[in-house]
């Protein structure tokens, strides 16, 4: 009889645990996703404005775009105006989307100089040689520029490699975000 009582108590505890987990998920609380570990990073902004981690982006429950680039990469230089265009669109149209670029130059000052010369105003994190992000994102295999697109909650959607005209529209379509009309 005590065995049945123990079984009933354990079953009740399990049921309450599952109900609590379902309730937390319904209330919009994001719990760590095992995939996050694969993509994990924690980097500092080039302009010394603090830092950002993959988990912070994933927990925001907004889709986000990560763009890796180098200042001495010709394809990156061609792509960056399109990245800036997407950043401007996000701001102007208040799109529910985060955009973060990650520079992987040898020296942070090279990145700072390029940003000043080019007039780019995109948020930039710095990861020397991609040391802290290469493993999760395969930068050596893919080259630069490379863009990773994630849905709300950190769900991987797709990768865009190399130079791509129509970049802004391509990213927004991957996320099922309507392309804003130009003014």
Features:
single chain, 183 residues, alpha/beta, Glutaredoxin, 2 domains, seven-stranded mixed beta sheet, 45% helix
The N- and C-terminal alpha carbons lie at a distance of 75 Å
Count of the domains: 2
Biggest β-sheet: count, sense, barrel? 7 strands, mixed
CATH topology of the largest domain: Glutaredoxin
Supply Rg.
21 Å
Structural class of the secondary elements?
alpha/beta
Q: Roughly what fraction of the amino acids lie in strands?
A: 15-25%
Shape verdict: globular
- What is the annotated CATH architecture of the largest domain? 3-Layer(aba) Sandwich
Averaged pLDDT, please? Answer: 80
What is the CATH C level class of the largest domain, in words?
Alpha Beta
- Number of distinct beta strands: 7
């Amino acid at each position: 009889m005590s065995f049945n009582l123990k079984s009933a108590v354990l079953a009740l505890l399990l049921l309450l645990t599952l109900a609590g987990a379902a309730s937390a998920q319904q209330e919009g609380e994001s719990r760590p996703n095992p995939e996050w570990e694969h993509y994990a990073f924690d980097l500092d902004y080039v302009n010394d404005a603090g830092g950002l981690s993959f988990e912070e982006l994933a927990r925001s429950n907004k889709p986000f775009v990560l763009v890796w680039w180098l200042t001495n990469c010709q394809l990156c230089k061609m792509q960056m105006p399109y990245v800036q265009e997407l950043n401007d669109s996000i701001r102007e149209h208040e799109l529910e989307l985060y955009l973060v670029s990650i520079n992987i130059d040898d020296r942070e000052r090279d990145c700072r100089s390029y940003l000043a010369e080019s007039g780019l105003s995109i948020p930039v994190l710095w990861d020397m040689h991609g040391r802290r992000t290469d493993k999760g994102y395969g930068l050596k295999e893919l080259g630069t520029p490379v863009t990773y697109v994630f849905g709300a909650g950190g769900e991987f959607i797709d990768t865009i490699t190399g130079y791509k005209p129509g970049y802004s529209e391509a990213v927004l379509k991957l996320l099922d975000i309507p392309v804003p009309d130009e003014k």
